[in-house]
Amino acid sequence: MGKNQYLEKLFGLSGKTAVIIGGTGELCGAMAEGLSGAGAEVVLAGRSEAKAAARLERIEAEGGRGYFVPVDVVDRGSLEALLAQVVERSGAVNILVNGAGINSPTPFLEISDEEMARIMDTNYRAVVLGCQIFGKYWVEGKRAGSIINLGSMSGMVPLSRVFTYSASKAAVHNLSKNLAREWATSGIRVNTLVPGFFPAEQNKKVLSPERVASIMGHTPAGRFGKAEELVGATLLMASEAGRFITGAEVVVDGGFSAMTI
Fold first, then answer.
1. Options 67, 124, 137, 165, the catalytic residue
2. Maximum pairwise Cα distance, the chain
3. Model confidence over 189-238: pLDDT tens digits?
4. Can you spell out the DSSP letters for 113-163?
5. Among residues 83, 36, 84, 82, which one has the least CA distance to residue 63?
6. Does the annotation mark 6 as catalytic?
7. Structural domains in the chain plus CATH codes
8. Which residues have a Cβ under 8 Å from the Cβ of 196 and sit 6 or more positions away?
9. CA distance 47 to 158
C-alpha cells in the first residue's frame, strides 16, 4: 500500500456527507473546507447565504462539493427539515458538526435573564437539539456516525470573564461525554473540539487589548490560533483514524492549557 493510499484509508472521507451547523462562520467554515478536502460533501447550515456562497466558492475551486441550507439552530422543526433535506439530496448524513455560538462580556452582576437565555439557547440547547435529531436518525437507522461539538477552553477553566458563554460550553462538554458513553455501542462517536483563542468574530468582540496581552503571555505558541489549524483535529474525529476516539476533549490551543494547569 502506497503512502497516499494509507493516508486515504485513515483520513479519507470520500462518499461521506458532513453537516456543519455554523458552517457560515469563520472557524466552522475552515473545518468545512478541511472535511471537503478529505473528500466529504459538505453542507453549510446557518443564517447567511452570502457567507456560505463565499465559502462554497473556495471549496469548489479546490474540487470539493457542497451546498447551503438555511437553519434556525434553536428551532427543532428547522433542524428536522435540515436533516430531511440533506438525506433527500445527499442520501445520508455521516458527520455532524455542532458549531453555532454567540458570546457576551457582560459583567456577572449585570447579566439579564434575556441575555442568559439567548446564549444558553444558541450555545447549548441548539447542540442538544442537533444531537437529538441527528442522533435519532443514526440510532434508529442502525447507522454509524460522528458528532463533533464545539467546546471552548473557557468551558474547562475560568479564564475569559464570559460567564454565560463559559457555562454553556461547560454544558456542551458534559453532554458530549454522556452521549459518547450512551451511543458508543451503536457506532456513534461524540467528541468535543476545544479551541483555545482563535480570531473568531465573537472573540474579537469581547477581548480587550489588555486581555489579548495576557492571553498571549500565557500561550507558549505566542499567538492566536489560525482557523485552518482546527482541520487536523477535525479530520481525526471525523475519519476512520479516530474510530476508537469518543468522549474526548480534543484541545487545540497552542499550549495555553499546559500553562494554566
1. 165
2. 61
3. 999 999 998 876 555 566 677 777 877 788 899 999 999 999 999 999 99
4. HHHHHHHHIIIIIHHHHHHHHHHHHHHHTT--EEEEEE--GGGTSS-SS-H
5. 36
6. no
7. 3-260 (3.40.50.720)
8. 153, 219, 225, 251, 252, 253, 254, 256, 257
9. 30
Taking residues 7-21, what's their average pLDDT? 97
DSSP letter for each residue of 197-256:
S---HHHHHH--HHHHHHHHHT-TT-S---GGGGHHHHHHHHSGGGTT--S-EEEESTTH
Q: Which residue has the cell 477553566?
A: 157
Print burial letters for 144-175: b (CB count within 10 Å at least 16), e (below 16): ebbbbbbbbbbbbeebbbbbbbbbbbbbbbeb
Triad 172, 110, 120: Cα angle to 5°: 20
> Count of CB atoms within 10 A of residue 126's CB?
26
Which pTM was predicted? 0.94
> What's the grid cell of residue 141?
437507522
Distance, CA of 29 to CA of 226 (rounded, Å): 12
pLDDT at residue 146 tops 80: yes
d(CA 229, CA 234): 9
Q: What are the grid coordinates assigned to 120, written together?
A: 444558553
